[in-house]
Amino acid sequence: MRRLLIATTNLGKQLEFRRLLADLPAEVVTPQEIGVELEIEEPFDTYEENARAKAVAYAEATSLLTLADDSGIEVAALGWGPGVRSARWGQGRNAERILEALGETKDRRARMVCALVIAHVEDGQLRMHAVRGDVEGTIARTPRGAGGFGYDPVFLLPSGVTTAELRDAEKDRVSHRGRAMIAARGALLDLLVARP
């Protein structure tokens, strides 16, 4: 079975990716599990460029089929930010920081975005495939739910629940990361079955 490296050290993302990849014919591994430590800069202005930087660095360092993502939240009242700066902007207090920034603002439209990049070395050449998943919603007035991580407790779906209130299977079906994985599935399957 071919190894597939999830190019992130974020434990929340690792957990989600393990669920999303569970039915694929792959041995899913993380950087910690294979003893790889890389410091990857994410200086770019697009999710895809940042995801590409991570995918390339890990694929070249390990020669493994690699999946990397960059994701974030975009809020209308914050000029559709923080966007690609979401992780650093929240400083570990993501949900609280968004609520503080919005206060009593009426326009609470938001979306979650995920860019996924698959990278692999084939015949000495680095090859990549990129996809994107988006989900529209709003920012809740207060955090709700015990699931998920990051901005999940305040990201309110049109159905009226936050992504932190969803069961794992439901979240994986409707989330930005879940939608991106659906878009990436065909390319991943082709790569996983093409070679041992």
Protein architecture, described:
By secondary structure, the protein is of the alpha/beta class. Strands 1, 2, 3, 4, 5, 6 and 7 form a 7-stranded mixed sheet that branches. Strand 1, helix 1 and strand 2 form a beta-alpha-beta unit. Helix 6 packs across helix 7. The longest helix is centred in the last third of the chain and has 19 residues. The N and C termini lie close together (6 Å). The mean pLDDT is 93.
Features:
seven-stranded mixed β-sheet, single chain, alpha/beta, 196 residues, 7 helices
Return the average pLDDT rounded to an integer. Answer: 93
The portion of residues forming beta strands comes to 25-35%
- Shape, principal axes of CA atoms: globular
Major sheet: 7 strands, mixed
Low-pLDDT residue intervals, each spanning 5 or more residues? none
The assigned structural class equals: alpha/beta
Total number of β-strand segments?
Answer: 7
Helix content: 25-40%
Q: In summary, what is this structure?
A:
The protein has 196 residues and is of the alpha/beta class.
